[in-house]
Amino acid sequence: MTKIQTLPAAVEGQSSKTSKSPRRRESPGNLAFSRNARIKGLIKHAILILVGGIMIYPLLWMVVSSLRPNDLIFREPGLWLNNLEMSNYTDGWSALTHPFGHYMINSAIVVLGSILGNLISCSMAAYAFARLQFSGKKLFFGIMLLTIMLPFHVVIVPQYILFSQIGWVNTFWPLIVPKLLATDAFFVFLMVQFIRGIPKELDEAARIDGAGHPRIFLRVILPLMVPALATTTIFTFIWTWNDFFGALIYLTDPDMFTVPVALRAFVDSQSATSWGSLFAMSIVSLFPVFLVFLFGQRFLIKGIATTGIK
Amino acid sequence: MSAIGELSTMTRRKGPMTKEEKKANGRDNKAAYVFLLPWLIGLVVITVGPMLMSLYLSFTDYNLLQPPQWVGIDNFVRMFGDARLHNSLRVTFTYVLVGVPLQLAVALVIALVLDKGLRGLPFYRSIFYLPSLLGGSVAVAILWKQIFGTTGLVNQVLAMIGIQGPGWISDPNTALGSIILLHVWTFGSPMIIFLAGLRQIPNMYYEAAEVDGATTLQKFWRITLPMLSPIIFFNLVLQIIGSFQSFTQAFIVSGGNGGPSDSTMFFTLYLYQKGFGQFDMGYASAMAWFLLVIIGAFTAINFIASKYWVFYDD
């Protein structure tokens, strides 16, 4: 009984989060099956809790282990803590050439530059693809979609040669400049999809009022596409924060290390005895992503769903 | 209209359809190219230029110090006889052909369980989604290195029930499996796409099937699966393309060498070693183009095969 009564609320919650979905499948009409449905529901919850528990357990265990003395990490599979051992964090923080905060700041610079680059360049390209008529549009749009699928490795060697010739190795430019040039075509596609959903009448109205394209873009379209911009911001944050390959190739000077390459240097430099501080810094490195996930989840899920479905 | 629909029409027509294009011809050319300028520069300087350049380099011997030496198809001939490269292909194919279907199957099953307006859905969804955001990080790869180590978490748990597990990542037979598991662990993002897809299936189909007395299994095979097939296809294409490029996890778990005994030597890892370890840029470029051809071939096969199993409603 309770199950069925709570259904509409659950449905409301999920549909507002995903898309303008049709009604859910269960209708309050099958009251006769309510007992059956309740057992089914219980089984489902059991499966989900089991699978979810197994998935999350390693992460929880890493958090707990980072607060334990080193030797326990290889003996204690449980999650209970006798006392908090903060030394892993203080040791790990200062284990490398620079304090770990240095690498966090480097990462933050690259992330901010990338976000700014993606927001500006991708929204401009998306406006052109979604709203403007121009020769070669079909061809360019097709090429844009193809570049989403292009493996990074095909361009990395000449890109490296190019950037090293202009002296950009061990600077953040090779990681930021491509974003300023809208090479993350995934976001162009996401924004095109979003702009197509904005009523054209709004553009028309602005045009009748004498607005040109720059004005329509800045005053009409951009304010309306804030959700797509938020999705782009969040994905760019997470992907750039986690980016290892690019940083591995372009940043070889410890001064310039971002968090992933710093962690890698940490793994390489440490003997098996300092897993505690390695875990501690891993937790520190995941924390910003976790925060973004916590507060931006709505946009993330919407973003994935739009690109897949719309 | 699904993205897949769009993508597939794309390949047939070499361009998306916009109704407006018929009435206006080049009216906004100037404005359009201004808006497209950053993207166009990026396309030329960051994407197409380097692509052509790497195609050229693949026919040369180049170590960054001396100018490239034209060697014809030598690099490709070398690839033909390079046993480590063949091994890296085997490793990568295993990873893709086992990891992707497994991950999508888990994603689909969990999405199906979650779909039916379950209490606490947002909570479960978050729990399942979180790993797919963290899975690409070095930190999680480090965690994996520990938990699948000889005295890692997995073996500690196994020891509690009296089993002595192998050193998963130090044993060539199980190392790749551990990394495949990491891939399966990130099933959250295809799951979200499945969930959104499931919502799009009109309720009336199920109602009609119920009137006809269809069982749950029948409803799944006859309604859910066909209606969801474009989404399955979409996930399949994306995940295959992405998995061929996997790098970080194998790099960190193996300490950068693809070991033990090359059992986690992904194609991309070998490419990295050739290009940026030994600065054999010509060979690395040839490998990169080979990877592009492989991914292109897989995607093409996917699209061709989709005609036989993907069902489009419209």
From TrEMBL, chain B:
Region (Disordered) residue spans: 1-24
Subcellular location: Cell membrane
Transmembrane regions listed in the UniProt entry: 32-57, 93-114, 126-144, 175-198, 225-244, 284-305
Membrane topology: Multi-pass membrane protein
Species this chain originates from: Paenarthrobacter aromaticivorans
Name listed for the protein in its UniProt record: Sugar ABC transporter permease
Family that this chain belongs to: Belongs to the binding-protein-dependent transport system permease family.
A Pfam family annotated for this UniProt entry: BPD_transp_1
Main location: membrane
PROSITE patterns in the cross-refs: ABC_TM1 (PS50928)
Keywords for the protein's UniProt record, in alphabetical order: Cell membrane, Membrane, Transmembrane, Transmembrane helix, Transport
Lineage: Bacteria, Bacillati, Actinomycetota, Actinomycetes, Micrococcales
Domain ABC transmembrane type-1: 89-302
Keyword Repeat carried by entry: no
